[in-house]
Amino acid sequence: MIINSPASNATISSPVTVLGKAIAFENTLQVRIKDGNGAVINEVTTMTNAPGMGAFGNYTVIIPFTSQAPGSIGTIEAFEYSAKAGTVTNLTVIPVKF
Sign of dihedral through CA atoms 16, 9, 2, 76? Predict the structure, then answer.
C-alpha cells in the first residue's frame, strides 16, 4: 500500500482526499483516519483500478471525518483485512495534523 497524498505530516481537514497505489486482493482496500490516541475516526472501503491480479492500481477516496482539535495529531492508514483471519495486513501509516 502506498499513500501519495496527503503528504506525511500534512494538515488535513474534512473531507480529506486520499490518493495512492496498491496491490490488493480483489482490488479492495481500507483507508482510515485515526486520532492521536489511536481511535478510528472514520474507515472506508475503496477499490483500485489495477488491470489484473498482482498489479498495482491507483485509488482515490474522499473521507469525511468529525472535526478534531486544531493542531492535534493523527494518522491515515491504508491496508487490507485478511480474508482468512480478518486481521490487518499490508499496513501503511502516515502521520497527519488536524
Answer: negative
The residues, any chain, with a CB within 8 Å of residue 50's CB and separated by 6 or more, are: 22, 23, 24, 27, 56, 57
Residue 3 CA, distance from chain mean position:
7
DSSP 3-state of 59: strand
DSSP collapsed to 3 states, 6-67:
CCCCCECCCCEEEEEEECCHHHEEEEEEEECCCCEEEEEEEECCCCCCCCCEEEEEEECCCC
Q: How many CB atoms lie within 10 A of CB 74?
A: 21
**Stretch 10-27: mean pLDDT, rounded?**
96
pTM score over 0.90: yes
Instruction: Tell me the per-residue pLDDT of 45-81, one tens digit each, with 9 for 90 and over.
Output: 999 999 988 899 999 999 999 999 999 999 999 999 9
